[in-house]
Amino acid sequence: QEKSCRLSAALLGEDSEISQEQLYELLKYAALGKGHNAAQPSWCRIYHQSHLAGVVVVVLHEMSQLHFYRFYLQFKHLRKVFQHRFTLTPSTNFPGSLYGAGTHLKPQNTAQGLTSTSSECITKSSDLQCDPIIQRYGEKKQGLTSYTLTLEEQKKNDYPIKGSPGCKGYISTECDQQRTDSSPLFGLDCEMCLTAKGNEVTRVSLVDAQGQCLLNELVKPESSVMNYRTRFSGITKKMLLPVKTRLSDIQTRLKKLLPHDAVLVGHSLNSDLQALEMIHPSVIDTSLLFARSEGRRFKLKFLAKAVLGKEIQCEQKLGHDPTEDARAALELAQFFIEQGPAKVAELNLEMLLTAEKLAEVSQNKAALQPQGCGFQEQLNEPPHLSKPCFLDCLQVTGQKPLLLGRQGQDSSGQCQSNLSTSNKQILQRALEDVPLSTFSIIQFSLGPEYIASHLHAGLFEKVRSKLTDMLTIYAGPFEENFCMKSVKKEFGRCGPIQSLTVVTETFQPYVCIQYEVLEAAQLAVESLNGAEVAGSCIKVQRPVTAAMLDCNVLIKELELDVENEGVIYVAGLKKSLTETDLQEEFSQLRDLETLFLPKDLQSGKHRNCCFLKFQKSQSAVDALETINGWTMKGSELRSRNALASGHLWKWIWQMNHSSGKQGEHIFFEKMEQLSDSEQDLRKKVKKLDHHIKKLYRSLQNNTLCVVLFPGVN
């Protein structure tokens, strides 16, 4: 069975908060691996990193943890799929340091220490010995036969080989004559679309040694087309409608056009021959000819500009021109043969690429940052002290990250001229481009009208108010002279109480109890409603307000949250018990993985409850049956499924202990403005969740996907 990548991380309690640096550790190791001296993250572990298909980071612009829980029910897909959830500790400008918005970089400083050893070596123009081109071909000029791929090299690079299992039914060009240094060169390039069969040819171009076009033909695929890849191929459905030419016709024409000693030239020519289902014995692959270290390759667009001084694959054109690409590959091979390896190495292509990327980044990186919110302004430091952003680190190691957003960049790094791109358009681009990139950042936004600071403040109050109501229960009625101590003791068995007060507005006494954890309030409602407490048969309920009408739905969804799978809450513990004591007491429970004992974040004292995480969900169900009614050190335990086991527990505590008091004269104005837009906002969030679902489902297996709520600060 093929090895699959896996992420292992702690999920409970204090471990559920991570820093920006820790997130970078994860992204860097996932993107680069050991090949670029990236280390396993200190706080989690990625298994089989070399099998990772790619990394996708979805940034929800200026949305925070606050938005996630305010619109928890609307984020249906997000909360059901992403099982690892962490709170990011605040940083000065998280998105800025991720993709460098607004920073100014000096190329010589940025490149230092980020390129590989081999790249550093070739920066010394006086010493070319460690250049990969020289290491592979030597310094002397040689004939073209020295640069054709050997049979072993063809096998290694997935070229169709006669007699190999995957090439059954492939057609040979029958160019079987002995090659010499005077054999004719032909440039070949194809454009493909994605069909039910895989990659199928839609256009083929062949040019001769003088650059004359011998063939430029549209081809109708055999299978139904799933994606025309118009942005890259230039092919549309309309273009292929009248086409009668099939793959077999192209194979026949190529066999007629190529002489028996022909040498085919192309850039990653293996994919063209595979799509053509043809076998040709003698090829020059310019992606391998212009050798780089560690198996990396230069793009054809870059080589054409750096070596030939030609601009190809221009953004203004719809798709690539296969004739242009075939001619560029041919001229690159001719340049290499005529000038020799030493002259090519002296071009210092690695340095040129680094300089080009850094210039590109510094010109365009401000595009994702709102106007007036530059990273440089916020840090208030001179440009020469600015650190390289995360994407810079990737780019100087030869990767070409994809960056898409409302004010984003496309995969070529060029700033989009249309700044009003919708989330739907961004999604469409992402569905096309993400499969072609190993590292992608996709930025969605609710729009400027929903992220104003006054709306954010109103949102905070709404969330804090609802959480307070969910943590609060009313119990009663009691007798006139009831024993408050008995009530506190009974309700305290459900979990830590923050406050307990007597309600005086009612005919008979009631008590209002506010708990510190959601599970405690829910346990009180479930176990004490209708029970006899302090000599009275009481009713236990939460406050009845408009905001609480969906409370039961919310509780159910929290319980089913993937983050709470296999996690239970246990209350009624004696405070004298230590974590070691509890580990010992619960050791008999099958498949127990983690125990978390919450602490008061101010005093540091642990509470009278804990969370238990089990390796299997069924083991958690069995543990619930065992623990309920279990007496530990003279105290009866109560238990239920967890509702807020991870980062949410700590966040609720912080929300609950924040003053949250706003000036009355501005607070109601904010709330009124928020109410006007919140219904529309719910629809927007639901649609956003659907976009993430669609993007997520399109990802290849073994893709690491991270969704960030970076907040407004």
UniProtKB/TrEMBL annotation:
Transmembrane segments: none annotated. The keyword Zinc-finger does not apply. Residues 471-545, 566-644 form the RRM domain. Keywords: Exonuclease, Hydrolase, Nuclease, RNA-binding. One of its GO terms (molecular function) is RNA binding. Pfam families: RRM_1 (PF00076). GO terms for cellular component: nucleus. PANTHER family: RNA EXONUCLEASE 5, RNA EXONUCLEASE REXO1 / RECO3 FAMILY MEMBER-RELATED. This is REXO5 exonuclease. It comes from Climacteris rufus. The gene is Rexo5.
